[in-house]
Amino acid sequence: MSGGGDELKLLGMWASPFVLRVKLALSFKGLSYEYVEEDLKNKSDLLLRSNPVQKKVPVLIHNGKPVCESQVIVQYLDEVYSAAGPTFLPVDPYERAMARFWAAFIDDKFLASWLKAGRGKTAEEKAEGVKETFAAVETLEGAFKEISKGKPFFGGDCVGYLDIALGALVAWMHTAEVRHGIRLFDASRSPLLEKWVEHFNKLDEFVAVMPNIDRLVEHAKVREAEVAAAAANN
Ligand SMILES: N[C@@H](CCC(=O)N[C@@H](CS)C(=O)NCC(=O)O)C(=O)O
After folding, report:
1. Where is the GST C-terminal domain positioned along the sequence (predicted)?
2. What pLDDT, in 10s, does the model give residues 13-59?
3. DSSP run (H or E) holding 226
4. What pLDDT, on a 0 to 100 scale, did the predictor assign at position 86?
5. Virtual CA dihedral for 57, 90, 205, 192, nearest 10 degrees?
């Protein structure tokens, strides 16, 4: 489905999990759009004009109007294209609130701890990050059990808001596994989430937008070297 005469443009960067979140939402809704790859070291005027506050991707431009922040964009697409594809957010207000709560947890706790594990300034900070990441995984496992009620996805039989929020990180989880042999969702710690990844990996809509893992591995090495060089200069 196209946007019904609507013009949808996504400003992104291929390796960004936040951009992938929006690509996933567009993919599950079956919407066609124009994709513009940004060079984050030399941002386009369009990006700077569209997101003057953060100057970050993703930005979705809908009929000339920019929407920023990946989770906000996914909610926007769900509201504007409510008739297309699955409905991401639950209908029940309490369940909607819970979905938003856990989506915030995914970014503020799980992802933040994982980044600390990779980019911590000292070995202690990194070890702390690893510990916090696995604690967040266990918490998420409990949330998945409660929310999915025995179904394959957070959204039940179909993907929902939380599947997209977390699914956008799956490619980076595979990358961490290749690089460091660390499996974030494994059978011993989080058997339900391990199964969830298995189901998510098989979805055509995910396969269609998932970045190449070898390319991500190379990108991660370069990024890590840049972050280390910047830290050494400070
Ligand atoms: N909270 C934002 C995070 C977006 C973000 O951090 N984007 C990065 C790419 S992964 C970016 O544009 N960085 C450019 C910069 O910081 O200058 C979201 O969910 O959209």
Report:
1. 92-220
2. 999 999 999 999 999 999 999 999 999 999 999 999 999 999 999 99
3. helix 213-233
4. 93
5. 100
With residue 11 as reference, give the H or E element that holds it: strand 8-12
Query: For ligand 1, is residue 12 a contact (CB within 6 Å)?
Result: no
The separation between the first and the last C-alpha atoms of the chain, rounded to the nearest angstrom, is 49
**Residue whose structure tokens are 């309490």:** 94
Q: Which residues form the domain of 110?
A: 93-213
Q: Which pLDDT band, with edges at 50, 70 and 90, does 4 fall under?
A: low
Q: Note whether residue 86 is domain-resident.
A: no
Query: Are 105 and 208 part of one and the same domain?
Result: yes
Question: What distance in angstroms lies between residue 187's CA and the mean position of ligand 1's atoms?
Answer: 31
Q: What percent of the chain stands above pLDDT 70?
A: 98
In testing the pocket of ligand 1, which one of 56, 76, 111, 175 has its CB within 8 Å of the most ligand atoms? Answer: 56
Pair (18, 54) in one structural domain: yes
In a domain, 48, yes or no: yes
- Which of the listed residues 10, 11, 18 should we mutate to test ligand 1's pocket, taking the one with most ligand atoms within 8 A of CB? 18
> Do 22 and 60 belong to one domain?
yes
Q: Is 228 helix (H, G, I), strand (E, B) or coil?
A: helix
Say if residue 66 is in the same domain as residue 98: no
Q: What is the pLDDT of residues 148-158, one digit of tens each?
A: 999 999 999 99
CATH number at 21 reads 3.40.30.10
Note whether residue 1 is domain-resident: no
- Taking the C-alpha atoms of residue 234 and residue 71, their distance in angstroms, rounded to an integer, is 32
